Amino acid sequence: MSGRDTRSTRADGPTPAYAPRPRRHSTWLVEGIWHLHAVVRIQLVWLALTLLGLVVVGIAPATCAAAEALRAERRGELTRALPLMWRTYRRELIPAGIRMLPLLTVQLLALLMLWQAAAGLSSNPAIMAVLGTLGAITAGWASVSLAAIAVAPRVRDQDLLVTWRLALLMPGAVPLRSLALAVLLAAWTLLSTTVWPLGLLLGAGLAIDLAVGLLSTRISLLLDDLSAHRHDPARHADPTRRTDPTRRTDPPRAPTDPATP
């Protein structure tokens, strides 16, 4: 054996925060533990960045940064959460806040309506039922719209009005995934507020991870399809176009007179 140290040595320079890493050949349990560890790290960084922006200013860019880190983690490219999230946080500080704060306000008002219905502040049961139903639908719709902005960079990179329109239409475009996300977020919020240490370590991180898993890829495919339809509407109107090799696509030629030389 040579005198060289057989232990693994670190490469020169700092470790990149966003670089492919070798695949781990392990069981699903070990992969789940590694992913949970990444969610905890991302949650702690999210909490610090949110507090850095005094919650009101920091929650939107911190959520986008956490979603970016979780997308990288699912691709197997995340090595360090803090540098990647800090870079995304600075880039999205103003744009994400402008796009998400109105929906966050709507979500807060809807949760207030739910609290009023649950507390029974009115003596009329019918009013409480209507208030609770309206609050639940509004809160769920706003949550999915916010998730669409956070987990899909192509949604929030649009113009302001286009982003809002896409976000508000997204629950109707992917209804089953939106319903599943709304139910899971409600259950997780109830659990994490009841068991506060769990909420401190995993609260927002796991909620954003659920949104990334359910919406990120689906929204990207949906936007790709919409973009392709916009650039080539004739192909979508006629599916046989450019797919049938026996079909003539060139215009018919005018008949010629055989007697003409």
Topology:
Elements: H1 28-52, H2 59-74, H3 81-119, H4 125-151, H5 153-156, H6 160-173, H7 175-194, H8 196-231, H9 233-237
Helix pairs in contact: 1-2, 1-3, 1-8, 2-3, 2-8, 3-4, 4-6, 4-7, 4-8, 6-7, 7-8
Largest sheet: none
Helix content range of the residues, please? over 70%
Which structural category fits the helices and strands?
mainly alpha
The radius of gyration is: 25 Å
> Could you tell me the strand content as a percent range?
under 5%
Mean pLDDT: 85
Stretches where pLDDT is under 50 for at least 5 consecutive residues are 1-15, 242-249
- How do the SSEs run, as a string of H and E? HHHHHHHHH
Helix count, DSSP H or I runs of 4 or more residues: 9
User: Ends: how far apart?
Assistant: 90 Å
Mass-distribution shape: globular
Structural domain count: 1
| DSSP strand tally | 0
Can I get a quick summary?
It contains nine helices and no strands. The protein has helices at residues 28-52, 59-74, 81-119, 125-151, 153-156, 160-173, 175-194, 196-231, 233-237. Helix 1 (28-52) packs across helix 8, helix 4 crosses helix 7 and helix 7 (175-194) runs antiparallel to helix 8.
